[in-house]
């Protein structure tokens, strides 16, 4: 039987027990608030774990045809879709596979409105509900790379474009302005949304509002009671409007780690670097993009006796390192290190830069046994390059 000690590294290890804790919490918030909470594939696309999500009745949102097909094959038949721009080549399949579809601009809606109407007339049993993304211009995200509400943002129509009212044929509004944010952040964005778009909400023509992702309700210390209160308040002000949330990270927050091994230790100019059999650039890109330094289970708080180390990725990129972490004893080749919380977004965004071997993906069952879900080979690298 594979264990944490015997499984080869590098490997992304998902913990089923932690995953179920998150799903239990999200299901409870959904029930208490009376809203629908669906999962964004951009943060989690490990379809070999979707049997667990199906037990909780989780639906999903897709931003590409590949994500749409993944959802239809492995999770649900009620996929919500949004992409910054549909094309004549893709709109037909998006309509065939979607229950809700959000357009990023009035121009996109005008271009494809006839396609939506033809589809709904031809397939009344598979009707799709169209909506429009709007931009409440309320910026609560500190990292510009992840901030959809920056001045000049390409995401969504601003209030001035909708001063005349809800465009004919559209049924929903969608805003997304959060990223791993708090309930208070949602309160601020919602106030701006209602101030700017309240005339649409009161028009009687809006059937649903999608409040996007970034609701990190499974993070320790998140005010879930406050979130429920905010959502209940919105529903009481606008009865009859369905409320949808589509978090990504919340579903898989702190549910998986990246297990690595030290393969060498370098010391130059008084700086110790432990080179690991993984890569920040290839296997943990968010750490460099966000940026943030992940916790390492085996590390300790700095002290007079602890030893500082950088961790260096095993690629040729000069900046493929982070640090410092402190350890109680010298690191040596063969030592195992656990980089925590490497499931949400990380497994979706990894690359094969430098041809570096991609980490395996495994799941740790509640009884402690580990099942290997995926092992990547040269064929995977070759197929990505051709």
Would you kindly provide a written description of the structure presented here, covering whatever features stand out?
By secondary structure, this protein is an alpha/beta fold. 30% of the residues lie in helices and 22% in strands. A 9-stranded parallel sheet has the order 2-10-9-8-7-6-5-4-3. Strands 1, 11, 12, 13, 14, 15, 16 and 17 form an 8-stranded mixed sheet that branches. Helix 4 (91-97) crosses helix 5.
Strand order of the largest sheet: 2-10-9-8-7-6-5-4-3
Strand residue content: 15-25%
| Total number of strands | 17
**Biggest sheet record:** 9 strands, parallel
Could you give the order of the helices and strands?
EHEEHEHEHEHEEHEHEHEEHHEEEHEEH
For the CA atoms, what is the radius of gyration? 23 Å
Given the structure, what is the number of helices? Answer: 12
Query: N-to-C terminal Cα separation, in Å?
Result: 37 Å
Range of helix content: 25-40%
Overall pLDDT: 96
Shape call: globular
Summing up helix and strand content along with how strands pair, one would put the structural category as: alpha/beta
Contiguous runs where pLDDT drops below 50 for at least 5 residues: none
């Amino acid at each position: 039987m594979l264990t944490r000690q015997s499984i080869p590294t590098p490997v992304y290890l998902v913990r089923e027990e932690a995953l179920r804790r998150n799903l239990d919490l999200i299901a409870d918030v959904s029930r208490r608030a009376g809203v629908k909470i669906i999962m964004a594939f951009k943060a989690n696309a490990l379809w070999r774990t979707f049997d667990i999500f199906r037990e909780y009745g989780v639906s999903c949102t897709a931003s590409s045809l590949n994500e749409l097909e993944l959802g239809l094959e492995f999770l649900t038949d009620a996929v919500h879709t949004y992409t910054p721009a549909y094309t004549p080549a893709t709109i037909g399949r998006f309509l065939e596979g979607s229950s809700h579809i959000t357009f990023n601009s009035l121009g996109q809606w005008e271009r494809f409105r006839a396609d939506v109407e033809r589809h709904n007339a031809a397939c009344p049993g598979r009707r799709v509900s169209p909506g429009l993304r709007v931009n409440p211009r309320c910026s609560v995200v500190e990292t510009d790379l992840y901030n959809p509400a920056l001045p000049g943002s390409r995401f969504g129509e601003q209030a001035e474009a909708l001063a005349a009212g809800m465009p004919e044929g559209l049924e929903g509004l969608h805003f997304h302005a959060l990223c791993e944010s708090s309930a208070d952040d949602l309160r601020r964005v919602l106030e701006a949304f209602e101030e700017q778009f309240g005339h649409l909400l009161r028009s009687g023509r809006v059937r649903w509002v999608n409040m996007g992702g970034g609701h990190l309700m499974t993070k320790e210390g998140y005010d879930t009671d406050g979130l429920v209160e905010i959502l209940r308040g919105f529903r009481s002000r606008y009865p009859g409007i369905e409320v949808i949330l589509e978090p990504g990270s919340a579903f898989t927050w702190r549910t998986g780690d990246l297990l690595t091994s030290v393969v060498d230790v370098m010391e130059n100019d008084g700086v110790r670097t432990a080179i690991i059999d993984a890569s920040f650039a290839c296997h943990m890109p968010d750490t460099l993009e966000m940026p943030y330094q992940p916790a390492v289970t085996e590390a300790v708080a700095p002290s007079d006796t602890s030893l500082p180390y950088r961790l260096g990725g095993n690629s040729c990129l000069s900046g493929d390192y982070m640090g410092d972490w402190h350890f109680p004893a010298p690191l040596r080749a063969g030592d195992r290190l656990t980089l925590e919380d490497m499931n949400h977004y990380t497994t979706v965004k990894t690359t094969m830069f430098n041809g570096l071997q991609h980490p395996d993906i495994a799941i740790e069952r509640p009884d402690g046994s580990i099942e290997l879900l995926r092992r990547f080979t040269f064929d995977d690298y070759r197929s990505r390059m051709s």
